[in-house]
């Protein structure tokens, strides 16, 4: 039996300014709940595309939105917030920019009354932008940071919380300073590191690139992001990003010094092995803190199933996992270079791993490492 569709908390109308990836995804999700979404964008073609995808409608005379969501690049976020506050005096205005302190301070310097403004940021996105990449489930299960202050009325806060909840997100309250320092560590620095690492591939020999596996793909996945957007984000959050990068630079220097001390016979000075081992172990400890599925801290184990590169093979594997009663917590796919086979790395809870292996082998599946 299909679960009945949940009605939206927001009554609408909701005005979305900016019809790119985030704006169009918000529109798609709200429209799916029956909310009246008004779209606006400085680019007529971007607006037309988002409307064609079903993310909302054009503005009309007499529109009275209860909530305005500004979804534009950081460089123009503050001016558009000011414009929307003035144009819609009965509406609460929020934004989804990935930096929160700079627009807030810019609006304060302009003398804007911020009673009806609440900064927010959904921790969700994709490497590619535009309405063509929009998805109604983009925010599902992801944190949505809300930055209120002492002047924020409860009813206004409630509208932004309702927006996050209607989109399937988990609202979290933080100050703008807490937010910007947090995203510097978990979002902005990873972008810089991924881009710098991926740049090493430009002049790499073809034979080296041909060996690329899931490790380099995982660590460079976000390197295809938009440079112009990231220039704005990094400029707006430069201080916290620099702090993390300086710490990272010191750690890299330590590893470089340790590796440099190893001579051609593989002999190392005292403490070298420990320095390298400590660096890797610290990474183990850090990654163990990352929340798993649905934000749980529970650890999973993996089993790797060899899957023939033929139509329907992966679908059959997933179907049979369901038939044997194994819940797949996560899935990663990797292809073997030059071979017609792939590897499905499946994360499961520890107590079902051996049963899953036994049942899959009995059904004819090959498990890597056995």
UniProtKB/TrEMBL annotation:
InterPro entries: 6-PGluconate_DH-like_C_sf, ACT-like_dom_sf, ACT_dom, NAD(P)-bd_dom_sf, PDH_C, PDH_N, Preph/Arog_dehydrog, Prephen_DH. GO terms for molecular function: NAD+ binding; prephenate dehydrogenase (NAD+) activity; prephenate dehydrogenase (NADP+) activity. Its EC number is 1.3.1.12. It catalyses: prephenate + NAD(+) = 3-(4-hydroxyphenyl)pyruvate + CO2 + NADH. This is Prephenate dehydrogenase. Residues 302-370 form the ACT domain. It comes from the Bacteria. Pathway: Amino-acid biosynthesis; L-tyrosine biosynthesis; (4-hydroxyphenyl)pyruvate from prephenate (NAD(+) route): step 1/1. Belongs to the prephenate/arogenate dehydrogenase family. Keywords: Amino-acid biosynthesis, Aromatic amino acid biosynthesis, NAD, Oxidoreductase, Tyrosine biosynthesis. One of its GO terms (biological process) is tyrosine biosynthetic process. Residues 12-290 form the Prephenate/arogenate dehydrogenase domain.
